[in-house]
Each structure stands twice: as C-alpha cells, then as structure tokens.
C-alpha cells in the first residue's frame, strides 16, 4: 500500500495535527427540544397525577367510591375532561419520546429501528385517539336506551 493510500485511509484522529470533526446532523435541535420536553412534561405530569390521585382517592370516600357513577360525574365537568385529556396526552407523548430514545440507542439495524418506531407510533396514535374519543364522547345516559341497562342515576 502506498504512502498516499495509507494517508487517505486514516481517520482524522490518526492524522498528526488533525482535529476530530463530528458530522453535523439535522436532528440536533430536535433532540435538544425532546430532552427539554421530557423534563418539563415530567414536572407537569407529576402535578397532574398527584392531583388526580388526591381527588380520586383522598378527597372523597377512597377507592370504594370510584365507580362508573364517579367517573360519569367527574367527566360531566369540562375542567376534569381537560385535566384527564392533558394527563393522557402528556403521558403518551412523554412515554413515546422515552421509548423512541431507547429504540435509537439499542436497535442496531435501520430496518429494526424502523419497524419498532412504526409499532410505537401506531400504538401512540391508537391510544391517544381512542382515549380522546372516550373522554369527550362519554355519555353515561345515552338517549333511547332500555331503562334496565342504564345506571341508577339516569332518568329513563
């Protein structure tokens, strides 16, 4: 192998006096914003979850009072619908971002990484769409339902 071929095969680190330059990626800002989002959403999630637990378990009669009627009464208020929606969305985005990072760190092949991320994003969309629909379309007393199928607090 000639001297010139050996010099071309060397990495910049092996070159005397050469400085190592990292390849620039376009994901730099996205990863920074993802990192900041994880910290901010984690703090907000802690507040939302402890508020949720306090209202559901401590402020009332405890776990024995949480039933269909309790949820129906809670979701009759737009405040609690938004609270639970925010908790759902933040938890799902936070968790999806965390799992995305784990996939990027541990999946070695591009094909494997693609399949895992597609499964992750599909699960994310399904849970967020269904959860949002449940929160906003929940009706404990649907019209024209047989009286024997309705909860006791519904007027037939």
Short description:
This protein is mainly alpha-helical.
Structure description:
With 156 residues, the chain is mainly alpha-helical. It has a single domain, classed as 3 helical TM bundles of succinate and fumarate reductases (Up-down Bundle), CATH 1.20.1300.10. The protein has 5 helices and no strands. GO terms for molecular function: electron transfer activity; heme binding; metal ion binding. Pfam families: Sdh_cyt. Keywords: Cell inner membrane, Cell membrane, Electron transport, Heme, Iron, Membrane, Metal-binding, Transmembrane, Transmembrane helix, Transport, Tricarboxylic acid cycle. InterPro entries: SQR/QFR_C/D, Succ_DH_anchor, SuccDH_FuR_B_TM-su.
Please tag this protein with its features.
156 residues, 3 helical TM bundles of succinate and fumarate reductases, elongated
